């Protein structure tokens, strides 16, 4: 393929590790996740605003209920993966969620006492929050090969960060003008926009990305297998179980940092907290973009996954130890920014690359179990663990931070082992492919 000398293509080659034949697929994937995240973040402020009308006990009950609902949704998704052709599956999922938000819009209009509708909406958006992202990255892992994923996933992930900025702005600008219920319709329409992108990317992975093991024609068939195979694979496959443990430890650190930050902000008034959170998120998203465009791809390609996966956990260990000796607000906020930006810009893209080395069935069945069930389970377990340390044992912020450093150490070690397994698996898969190519090349002189 001839190299494009256009200004956009030259600019992309200079500031990223993207190759010329990958520009179109990368831009479409970036747009895909941008639209998804913007649609979600339009709904997120609506969801969180509802929680202010409920007690802590009611919210805690909803969180617990969310875990069980998410588990049921993942089981149903496993059945769909087994029976529905892949080319129809992903578009059908986003169409289903779009239709569900239209139903909520109609329910709000037609119900006089909307408390139950509000709580159902709160739960459904929480399910959507993780499910739509998990399906997206499953699709990405089924579109790009291992080398392309290492260079492009961080760039694509930056689209999610941009959507996370635009979505809340839409809510902030239009909520009071058109009403929060109309935001549901806007989000529903946006969820339909990626469908032609999905279909076109299915063709690009053969015509331009040139992935011989990801043929578009093969996508016409259902994945098949046991509908509950994702749960079985998760508990029986050490590699998948390791990814799940990695995510649970990440959610544990997130809970520790979030709750420590919340406690340190308790003496401030609401306006001051809001300003601090605003400045924090602005810095966070900026760092995420810097990491995604300039750092992550180079770290993975030059230093490898055994360095990329444990890098952020090691930094969090240092941050937790600093917080243990200096339990100050600025330290807690800084640790939140570093951990979240590092996750969005480095750890999450690197983590998604792990799924390029699993079977297609596991990619679509076990991945949602890990991304949703394990993630929500980690929230529940680690949240109660933190509460036990503070309210049960009466530990102060410094002692809790020291415990958090220990959890981060386990997180780093798990990431290192996963990185080594990934590199070994990639090498094993590459050897047969190279041998097959060598057999097809005629010997010199024949």
Question: What's this, in brief?
Answer:
By secondary structure, the protein is mostly helical.
Q: Can you put this structure into words, describing what you see?
A:
The protein has helices at residues 7-15, 23-51, 56-83, 86-110, 115-141, 146-178, 180-192, 194-207, 229-236, 238-265, 270-303, 305-325, 329-353, 360-392, 397-440. The protein is mostly helical and 446 residues long. The chain has two domains: 1-225, MFS general substrate transporter like domains (Growth Hormone, Chain: A), CATH 1.20.1250; 228-423, Up-down Bundle (Growth Hormone, Chain: A).
Q: Could you outline the blueprint of secondary structure elements for this entry?
A:
Elements: H1 7-15, H2 23-51, H3 56-83, H4 86-110, H5 115-141, H6 146-178, H7 180-192, H8 194-207, H9 229-236, H10 238-265, H11 270-303, H12 305-325, H13 329-353, H14 360-392, H15 397-440
Helix pairs in contact: 2-5, 2-6, 2-7, 2-8, 3-5, 3-14, 4-5, 4-7, 4-8, 5-14, 6-7, 6-11, 6-13, 9-10, 9-14, 10-13, 10-14, 10-15, 11-12, 11-13, 12-13, 12-15
């Amino acid at each position: 393929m001839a190299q494009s000398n256009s200004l956009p293509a030259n600019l992309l080659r200079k500031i990223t590790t993207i190759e010329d034949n990958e520009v179109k697929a990368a831009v479409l994937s970036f747009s895909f996740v941008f639209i998804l995240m913007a649609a979600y973040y339009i709904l997120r402020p609506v969801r969180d605003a509802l929680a202010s009308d409920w007690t802590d006990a009611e919210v805690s009950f909803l969180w617990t209920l969310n875990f069980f609902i998410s588990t049921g949704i993942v089981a149903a998704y496993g059945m769909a993966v087994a029976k529905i052709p892949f080319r129809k599956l992903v578009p059908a999922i986003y169409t289903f969620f779009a239709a569900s938000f239209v139903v909520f819009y109609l329910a709000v209009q037609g119900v006089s006492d909307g408390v139950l509708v509000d709580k159902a909406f709160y739960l459904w958006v929480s399910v959507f929050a993780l499910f739509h992202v998990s399906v997206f990255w499953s699709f990405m892992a089924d579109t790009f090969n291992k080398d392309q994923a290492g260079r492009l996933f961080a760039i694509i992930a930056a689209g999610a960060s941009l959507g996370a900025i635009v979505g809340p702005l839409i809510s902030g600008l239009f909520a009071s003008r058109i009403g929060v219920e109309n935001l549901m319709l806007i989000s529903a329409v946006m969820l339909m926009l990626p469908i032609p992108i999905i279909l076109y990317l299915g063709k690009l992975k053969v015509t331009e990305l040139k992935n011989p093991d990801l043929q578009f024609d093969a996508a016409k068939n259902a994945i098949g297998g046991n509908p509950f195979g994702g749960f079985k694979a998760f508990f029986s496959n050490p590699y998948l179980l390791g990814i799940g443990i990695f995510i649970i430890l990440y959610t544990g650190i997130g809970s520790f940092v979030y709750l420590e930050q919340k406690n340190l902000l308790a003496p401030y008034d609401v306006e001051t907290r809001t300003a601090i959170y605003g400045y924090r998120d602005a810095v966070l998203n900026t760092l995420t973009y810097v990491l995604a465009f300039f750092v992550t791809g180079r770290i993975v390609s030059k230093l490898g996954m055994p360095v990329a996966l444990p890098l952020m956990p090691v930094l969090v260990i240092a941050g937790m130890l600093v917080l243990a000796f200096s339990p100050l607000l600025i330290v807690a906020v800084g640790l939140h920014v570093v951990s979240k930006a590092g996750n969005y810009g480095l750890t999450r893209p690197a983590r998604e690359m792990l799924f390029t080395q699993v079977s297609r069935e596991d990619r679509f069945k076990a991945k949602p179990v890990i991304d949703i069930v394990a993630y929500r389970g980690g929230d529940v377990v680690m949240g109660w663990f933190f509460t036990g340390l503070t309210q049960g044992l009466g530990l102060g912020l410094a002692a809790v931070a020291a415990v958090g450093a220990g959890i981060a150490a386990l997180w780093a070690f798990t990431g290192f082992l996963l990185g080594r397994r990934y590199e070994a698996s990639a090498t094993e898969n590459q050897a047969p492919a190279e041998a097959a190519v060598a057999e097809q090349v005629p010997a010199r002189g024949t």
